[in-house]
Amino acid sequence: MSTDDQPVSAAGGWITVTLLADSLHAEALSDALLDAGALSVDIEDADAGTPDERPQFGEPGLPVAVELWPHSRLHALFEHDADLASAMAEAAEAAGLTAPPPYTTSQLDEQNWVRITQAQFDPIRVSDRLWIVPSWHAQPDPAAINITLDPGMAFGTGSHPTTRLCLEWLDRVITGGETVIDYGCGSGILALAASRLGAARVTGTDIDPHALDAARYNAERNGATLELMHSRETIDHQADIVVANILANPLTVLAPLLCGLTRRSGGRIALSGILSAQTDMVCDAYRPAFELEVAGERDGWVLLTGTRL
């Protein structure tokens, strides 16, 4: 029964049900709520923001955590006229609980979600000469290099710390005429920046076809020429600059390939998507081709760069 002790009604919109669960039942309860009619369910650490908070990071090639947080908070979204008492009873039984857990409810009114989403993304100033600008904003500095980029299906809007670190580094090192490879290009943001900053030839590769579609679209709308290919295809040239903003574990596995793609004697590499605690692991994987060093750090993420020995 709801802790509000009153039935919920609304003329429109949706109802959000919030409840707590332990690590053994959170996933099962989430699935059961969806089966019972919830439109969506999300799970978060109920101890977030306290000394008991337990960050979790998933990464390809690493073991998957068996349990979630010791204390999880679930938010389930229902239609405004849903029978919440019946849905909670059904979900609790399916999840193996002896009784429905206590829950609270709140109304979520219909809103202009497009406008609300757009309001979360403002232009990003990378440097005096480089901006990332959503299409619905005016260019803050028309004289600067303005890359038009909207949030979409592929990673890379410029707001994530690792993307910012890579953009700032490209802005510092590209002087014009370089060849660049963006390995794991996502939306194409780093490849686009390299091209607009003056690189002569820019190649982007990704494992996700949707990301490549997004990168092609972004290249066209920004008037940039990019060579885009699936990562299963072979890149047949070395580059002056190789940048890869992925994650530490795949970067470690890809070390022989990325080293081989970097021009000998003076080629430069930049790697990000790396937590500060993973720095030594990644540096070890790139020796003896590179002696990597931390070129930037933001919010616990680092950028490693080096010049080919």
Task: Explain this structure.
With 309 residues, the chain is α/β, with parallel strands linked by helices. It contains 9 helices and 14 strands. It has helices at residues 26-35, 84-94, 113-119, 161-173, 189-197, 209-221, 248-253, 255-261, 279-285; strands spanning 14-22, 40-45, 71-79, 103-108, 124-125, 130-133, 145-148, 179-183, 201-206, 227-230, 241-245, 268-275, 293-298, 301-307. The strands form 3 sheets. A 7-stranded mixed sheet has the order 10-9-8-11-12-14-13, with helices on both faces. β9 (201-206), α6 (209-221) and β10 (227-230) form a beta-alpha-beta unit. The radius of gyration is 24 Å and the shape is elongated.
**Number of strand elements:** 14
Helix and strand pattern: EHEEHEHEEEHEHEHEEHHEHEE
User: Counting H and I runs of at least 4 residues, what is the number of helices?
Assistant: 9
- Rg, Å, rounded: 24 Å
Please state how the strands of the largest beta sheet are arranged side by side: 10-9-8-11-12-14-13
Question: What can be said about this structure in brief?
Answer:
The chain has 309 residues and is α/β, with parallel strands linked by helices. It contains nine helices and 14 strands. Helix 1 crosses helix 2.
What descriptive keywords fit this protein?
disordered N terminus; 4-stranded antiparallel beta sheet; alpha/beta; 14 strands; 7-stranded mixed beta sheet; 309 residues; 9 helices; 27% helix
